[in-house]
Predict the 3D structure of the following.
Amino acid sequence: MKNTVLINCPLIDEEDLKELRESPCGADTEFDSVLVHGLFGSEVVQVTFVILQGIGINAAYDLIKYTLLHVLKRVSERGKEKGGTGTTIQVEVAEQDENGKIGKRRSVRITTSYEMEREEREKAVGKLTDDLLAGKGK
Amino acid sequence: MDYVQFLRLLQRQVDTGRKEIDETVQNRDIFDQKVLEKWRNEPDFIERIILTHIVESFELEIYFEYISGVSAESSAFAYKAKDGDPSAFFLDAVFDKSMMYLFLTVLAVCYHPESIEKCRSMFRFLVRDVLVGREKTDGEWENIIEELHMDDRAVTQAFDLYWAVWTFMAGYEIYHIMNRISFPTREEEFRADRFGFQVLIRLIQEQKAGKLPEELDCFYEEYYLAPCMLMEIFRNMDLYREKMPAYGTDDCHPSPEERMQALIDLFDTDVPDDMDTENGNAFLSAFLDAVELINGET
């Protein structure tokens, strides 16, 4: 079994997934894109992490932070080209045991401007990842 | 793990609020006891009968699963899988449950205007705290119907309205499963609404002709404008909603007001001539008036 990362955002393409798979934290992780379409407006980018229990906090931290920074960077570049100004990313983390059963789940949201500098993005994603791994979120 | 697998896992953890509804209806002799018994043993059986019937009636060649669970959004969504994998119509259980209670609350105002204060507080709680704020998604919902002293007629109507809205949502999402494109447009949204409306109209017509399974005895002509009532709920959600920027371009969904108007504009083209629309029109007016009263917009 592997960790799974599911990304719901039409701005993320197969090239991005390939890059994530080949990244230092992508070895034991499946990355896939999902496209969902909601009943009414204000859709958000969703990134769902299904983390195997026992993976260890540091590995989970690296995976979440690296993936979110990549998504945020791409969404900012491509969203700006399409005339957008920012986005909200819903991040969901769920733990999965060896039987496939989902245990704890929590989610947090981050709203960012496409004009955010790289350092600001890193700071925001770092805080969000810290919060998630500290058990914060709904 | 594919996405549908993940959605299935969410399903197991859901508090669907069925217990409260069951407790509410068990003492009222307003539902077919055989259907109720079956519903207790197989919670999604009505939804599955409706979906199977839609697929057969419209001769659709699609493969999707219906999944109800708790998601990040207060909504329903369509997931179109890559070739070969199952797609999904996912309905957020909190949204689903809230719809039922919102209809009960609004109809309580229609039938019992003296309960306006209690209804106002319940309506705001459901829209602002539960649907928009995603807070208090469990508990605190019990006994609402008894507290509002609703009579059997209002409760029955709220349940029938719920199924009409549910069917519209199913049609809308099925459209998106069949026609999924990366960036849906406003026109696609109107087309999805239209298909949802056509599905509802078809089921109403089929019930009238005795062509629906007997468990689905809820598709009456007076609910033909139920999708407009859903749009009114969306309009109210928007009033409480923090404006969230969409990715890339502006969100493709037209506003709830535009969607409601577009649905009403389908009257000449999509509503059969032999459909009795008088009660349905009056029902929508009464619903909108009640929401206006709740919001103190008069």
